[in-house]
Write a structure and sequence with these properties.
With 119 residues, the protein is mainly alpha-helical. It contains five helices and two strands, in the order E-E-H-H-H-H-H. Helix 1 packs antiparallel against helix 4. It is elongated.
Length: 119
């Protein structure tokens, strides 16, 4: 899978995440009508970058942010090892990474609508 950066006159499709013209009313790839829903850090599937970061910092030790982002396997792994406090440290680091991540990167990484993927 190849990825490319979007230009100023482009945006991401709210359904499939494809790079399309910023003025496009529908996506040429999936034919879904585009809405102007570019809310601060919210992906097309409704997940919020800021909420994910807060969950990672506050409840990262038990993997709540992983469940929220659809990474069920990793959430269970964090739960199993929460007694070691290693997931807490990793959760804080991941929270900082999520806070500093651009909206485009968040959408490309966590914005897909495919649920229950094990990665």
């Amino acid at each position: 899978m190849t990825t490319r950066q979007r230009r100023e006159d482009e945006k991401f499709c709210s359904d499939c995440g494809a790079v399309i013209s910023a003025k496009a009313e529908t996506c040429p790839k999936c034919h879904v009508r585009q809405m102007n829903t570019n809310v601060l850090g919210v992906a097309p599937n409704g997940r919020s970058r800021v909420l994910a970061a807060l969950l990672a910092i506050c409840l990262g030790s038990i993997g709540i942010h992983k469940f929220y982002l659809g990474k069920i396997f990793w959430g269970i792994l964090y739960l199993l090892f929460c007694w070691t406090f290693v997931p807490a440290v990793i959760g804080i680091i991941e929270g900082i990474i999520l806070i500093t991540m651009s909206d485009e990167t968040f959408v490309m990484k966590y914005g897909q609508i495919n649920e229950f993927r094990i990665e």
